[in-house]
Each structure stands twice: as structure tokens, then as C-alpha cells.
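Why do we bother with holo predictions? Because pocket geometry can differ from the apo form. Keep that in mind while you read this record for iron/sulfur cluster.
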Amino acid sequence: MNEKTMTEEQHFSEVIAEENICVNENLVFEKPETLLDTPMHYCPGCGHGVAHRLIAEVIDELGIQDKTIGVAPVGCSVFMYNYMNIDMTEAPHGRASAAATGIKRVLPDKYVFSYQGDGDLAAIGTGETIHTCNRGENILIVFINNGIYGMTGGQMAPTTLVGMKSTTTPFGRDVAIMGNPLKITDLVAQLPGVYYATRCAVNNHVNVRKAKKAIMNGFKYQDLKKGLSFVEIVSNCPSNWKMTPVESNKWMEENMLPFYPLGDLKVPGKEN
Amino acid sequence: MKELKLMKGNEALAEASILAGCDAYFGYPITPQSEVLEYLAQEALKRTGMVVLQAESEVAAINMIYGAAGTGKKVMTSSSSPGISLMQEGISYIACAELPCLLVNVVRGGPGLGTIQPSQGDYFQAVKGGGHGDYKLIVLAPSTVQEMVDHVKLGFDLAFKWRNPVMILTDGALGQMMEKVQLPAQLPRTTVEPEWATVGKPKTRERNFITSLHIEADKMQEINLHLQKKYREIENQEIRFDKFECDDAEIILVAFGLVARICQKAAQLAREKGIKVGVFRPITLFPYPSNELNKLAGQVKGMLTVEMNAGQMVEDVRLSVNGKIPVEFLGRMGGVVPTPEEILHKLEEKFVGEIV
Ligand SMILES: Cc1ncc(C[n+]2csc(CCOP(=O)(O)OP(=O)(O)O)c2C)c(N)n1
Ligand code: SF4
Ligand SMILES: [Mg+2]
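The structure, written out:
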């Protein structure tokens, strides 16, 4: 910290003290209790951190910290258990929904969720994803679709867009070689075991609020024991997309969202 | 005295798991062990409320086990060779995360899709690791249907005592054959979870998390050292074996599981001919009864290891006796079971000239 910021900071705290505005009744924003103080390792602007926070807020608001068990994937969010103040298991790559099944089957009255990237959920773990959905396990799956393998350094994901560059599709994804991007949420929404399927994003405040509502639904619906809730969050990966956070959000809006349109794919009680 | 029942190995094992108060079974059909899942599907839920779920693959099954074992419940899966191969990644995670669970491998002949006939070809996989990294399973090798029953409760007890996965390594013949068994009394299902279990974090304790990820080398080494220390302690405390007429023996047959019984018959035939033969049967394959074998090596002329594989446990027998005496090997593969007569023949061919 240099002298200038020190002074500014001091000045700022003096103002706060004088005005006496830092009192409980003025609080408008707090860190959720379910979020630990551990600094997150995510790159600046990455959607993972926002998604974690939303899950923590929902757990706080529902008051279910003592009844919730999460399953982290292998992917950038592998350390999720370092940030969430709940019981968690870190599953092998692709198998989070199977581990969540095991937990939910022996603890049917607890709230169980898995949190998985696109490589984890829609490539190596496709079998587990489809069958967990098809069995109608009463869990929530949060699916972070950033169109890339973040953790391993930017290889192609099943969700990588046609023409999109990655380290393993250096000339852009060629359908003739690599096939088309997989819309796994559309696919699982067809299964009777899935009670609720929706696609969200966390790129702006409106979408953040909608995503929070979707996650809230995914927890609440577990009380009904009517099947699985599947919440896709279309996200970004500034580091591997090789963009600034702002550019990455813009790119996401212009390229990802037209192919992965936001909105509900299956809503309880509605013909879809 | 409890009544005796005539039961098939796989069904006896399944029954024993219900009686042991097992909380959940996750598995996928494969011959020669599908009866375990079938029997449980029929019996378990209505009797104890035990969860029984047919998974979509062995990969899914072992990860259901991983999740459920993390809640501190008594959980079990069973499979046969190709299915156990598929589970190896999950088993490695479970071993590193130190979760108790019971795994059963009703071994069939390999490699590849192989045959559905009995084999001991998965000894290395079970005892030396199988999956990636330095870990150990506690491995139990039953030789009778009664032991298939007894090893279920023993397996759960050891798994929880050491927070370690336990494997019952048996074979297609034991799984399929019928024998008299005495069943134990019904034990309760799990009611109190251990303090490390992921069951939902109350305000009164720190969160529990189950992981095998320790990204810093020093920390990962620490975890490894801790595991190795545990394995040495298991070696100190949990070795089990059986001896048959070893006291005056000049030659020892070494075999595990079903083959040890065939060896007993061969030993009898040998004694009828005046050749003093005993049988040594390791019951725990890890921890291995090396010291006991080494002691025996001091009092006999030689050992013959008999296995239904190309020579796997024989490496451990040779390491145990450490060159004191010759250790010969007879192996049958691909589902062929050795006969007492051929064992006797091999024994005479290798040793009798020297002894008589
Ligand atoms: C069995 C296995 N195969 C491969 C890997 C390597 N690996 C780790 S994370 C990952 C991809 C993660 O991508 P994604 O699921 O999209 O998550 P993100 O990092 O993008 O959030 C891969 C291939 C592994 N850990 N385990
Ligand atoms: S690599 Fe990508 S997905 Fe991973 S933390 Fe960085 S921005 Fe997020
Ligand atoms: Mg990804």
C-alpha cells in the first residue's frame, strides 16, 4: 500500500466515523454466513465466484446450512469446499452426480447439490448426469457452462461453440472433426425425472437475481421429492478465452447466449 | 445354537450384509456375482430399510459408494473383475479420503472380457494397489461360504476401525457354490454418524469435507506418510492366516481362498503316500502374513504356491521366505481350477527326490 492510498483510506474511515453511518440498521449488504473468509482462487471476473455466492445466499436465506451437503467437481471449482461453510465432498472428475446420489439416498431428508463444469458434467460425466436425472434424484445440479476446460488450461469442452478457438481446437471448433456443441440442459429437460430445468447467467445484476431465484427453487423443490432440479449457468472464462472480464461478458452475450438462450426449459406444472 | 442353512456363496454374502446392518448397496450386474444385487433387491428394503440401487455402471456405483461412505454409513458394493477394474479411480479416492466401505470382487478369469469361470487373477490388483497412487486396501480372502458370511461383518469392523476400504477377494466358484452356513444375529443399521461424516454442518462444529486433493507437495507427502503409518499399523495388528498340519510338515503348500481347500486334499493324498505336507493359508492378503511364512521356512524343505493365475501371490511368498528355501509354483489360468492330483504330482516332481 502506498502513502497516497493510505491517506485516502484514512480519510475515508474518518468520514465514516464522523457521519456515524456504519450502524446495523444501515447495513444493506453482507457476506453470507455460509461463505467462508478464504480468498477465492478464481481469476478476476470469473463467474464461478458469483455462482458460489448465490448458493451461499440461498442456503442462508432458507436456513438450511445444517441440512445441506454439497459435492464439488474436478474443474476450476474443485476447491469449492474451501469457500463454503457447509459439509462437502470433492468427487472424481465427472462423478459428482453419482456421489450426490449416494449421499441423498442415505440421507433423503437433507438438501444435496452438485456443482459441475461443462467438461465434468457433459463430457466425462455424461452417463452419470443422464442417469441421475433420469432416476429423478431429489437433488440440485448446478451446471457452470463456460464453453471451455478452465482448470486444465483452455481445451475444448463439449459446449465449445462452433468456430470457437481453444488450445485443442486452435483453428476453431470444426464440426466435421469435433461434432457440434452439446446442449445438455435441453437434453435432460426431456427426461421425466427432471422436475425443473432452467438456463441462467451471472453476467449482469438482472441475470444474477434470476439465477439466485433458480437456485432457490432447486433447493426448495427438494422438499417435494418430485425429481431433480437442473440449473445451468452460462458463464465466462476470461483467462482461457484470453479476454478481459468486461470483454468476456460481452463476448458471452454476443456468442454464447444466442446458442444457449436463457430461460426456463422445464417448469413444474407447465406443459413444456 | 443357530440353525444351519444351505446357501449359495453370493447369496450368503448378501444375506450377511443385511444382517450386518449395512445401510446401502450400490452395484451393477456382472456374472458371476449378480446374485448379490438380485438377492438384496428381493430382501433388503423390506427387512431393514437398507438402500439397494442398481447403478448405471460400476463407475457410477463406486462413486455412489464414495458419496454415501462419506456420510459415515455402512456401505458396500460388489462386482467381478472387469467391473472392479472400472472402479479403480474411485477406490483410490476413497482410500486417500480414508472412508470406510466394503468392496467385494468375485473374481473371474481374465484378462479382457475373459471368462465367467473362477480365477485369482486379480490378486495383484487387490493387494498391490490397482488404482493410482500409494494406497492399500485391507484384503480378506474367504475359502468357504461360511467365511463369505463371516468376512462381511469383519470387513465392516475393519473398515471403520481403520477408516479404510476393505475388499473381500473371492472367486466365481465360491460365489456360485452351495454350502452349509451358520448365519449371525441381525445387527442394527447405523444410527450415530462418526464425527468426520458429511451429514450437514450444525453450528456446534466446523464443516466436514471429504477430499483427496492436496495441491501442495509437502501437504500431499504428509498425507502419504500418514497413510503409510496407518498401513504399517494394520500390518502389526490385523494379520490373519490359517495353518493345516504344518507342525511336522516337510513341504508346505501355500494358497489362498478356494485353492487352499484343494491343497488340503492334496496334502492328505501326500500324507497317505508318506510325504509330510502342510497347508498355509493367508486369510488377509493385505496385511500379508510374511513373518509367519518366514518362520515356517526355517523348518521345511520347500514350499509350493498354488494359484488360479500365472503366479501373483508367489512373489509375496518368495519375498517372505527371502531365499531360505526353494519356492515352486503351480498355476492354472483362465477359469481352470487345479486338481489335488496335479498338485500332488507337481509336489512330487519338485521335492520328493530330495526328501525321501
Ligand atoms: C479422470 C480425469 N481425467 C482428466 C482430468 C483432468 N481435468 C481436470 S479438470 C478438467 C476439465 C474441467 O473443465 P470443466 O469441467 O469445464 O470445469 P471448468 O474448469 O471449466 O470450470 C480435466 C479434463 C482429471 N482430473 N481426471
Ligand atoms: S480459468 Fe477460467 S473458469 Fe477457471 S477460474 Fe479462471 S476464469 Fe474462471
Ligand atoms: Mg468449463
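The longest helix of chain B spans residues 217-237.
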